[in-house]
Amino acid sequence: MRILITNDDGINAAGLSVLEAIAEAVAGPQGEVWTVAPAFEQSGVGHCISYTHPTMIAKMGERRYAAEGSPADCVMAGLHDVMKDAPPDVVLSGVNRGNNAGENALYSGTIGGAMEAALQGLPAIALSQFYGPGNVGLENQFEAAAVHGAALVRDLLERGDWGSNGGYRTFYNVNFPAVPAAEVRGRRVAIQGMRPGVRFTVEPTKAPSGRRFLWVRGGPQDVETGPGTDVQANLDGYIAVTPMRADLTAHDRIEALKAALE
């Protein structure tokens, strides 16, 4: 098996090393793991692509490349440049430092990389590690992902629904709970939740030069989102697995809108 990996935390991120180990375990001794990751951190860029300027790419080692672009740029670089003569069988994105559950999924560059792979017709999985009191003090804060990641990826590849139903292809968003690996309670297939009242905001600050800048600030991550949702599964100690598609249509509103407008 040939696997392409990327992330949004950057080529030197600790979570990428965790993903490399997961990918190597899944690919097996006869497989190959290729890395094309952002040269610099790209957290929060979503499914952004560098449409108006070129992306510089540099070889950092054997099957290892850094690109000055977003995770989606990296996936395109991997598929259409680095691995164009022998494309990958699957794309893995992560392991993100912090959860990409709930509303975070809409901003996530980690998910953006997986989404681009799905749009390109490949199986893709985004993986993220929730941070909280249960794991921030661990020697390896990615322990839950490191221990349980490979088995979950294998199961998704073997048993997951990778269909498109004639439209957008399914990809998967996986979030590991903020607990030690031994305390993971299992897996839960969950819908994307939404933390009530949690929003991104901005905080103004002034530089020594007198210029005014704005820092983006997030909200609390431990807000419960209700049964069957990804955030809640993580808060309850479970790995959350959410099938996704790059289709933003509110399908449940179509018929009512037709009746009102057509």
From TrEMBL:
Catalysed reactions, as listed in the record: a ribonucleoside 5'-phosphate + H2O = a ribonucleoside + phosphate
Cofactor note: Binds 1 divalent metal cation per subunit.
Survival protein SurE-like phosphatase/nucleotidase domain span: 3-195
Molecular function as annotated in GO: 3'-nucleotidase activity; 5'-nucleotidase activity; exopolyphosphatase activity; metal ion binding; nucleotide binding
GO CC, any one term: cytoplasm
Keywords carried by this UniProt record: Cytoplasm, Hydrolase, Metal-binding, Nucleotide-binding
Subcellular location field: Cytoplasm
EC numbers for this chain: 3.1.3.5
Residues binding a divalent metal cation, per UniProt: D8, D9, S43, N96
Major location category of this protein: cytoplasm
Cofactor(s) it depends on: a divalent metal cation
UniProt keyword Disulfide bond present: no
Alphabetical list of Pfam families matching this protein: SurE
Free-text function comment from the UniProt entry: Nucleotidase that shows phosphatase activity on nucleoside 5'-monophosphates.
Protein name according to UniProt: 5'-nucleotidase SurE
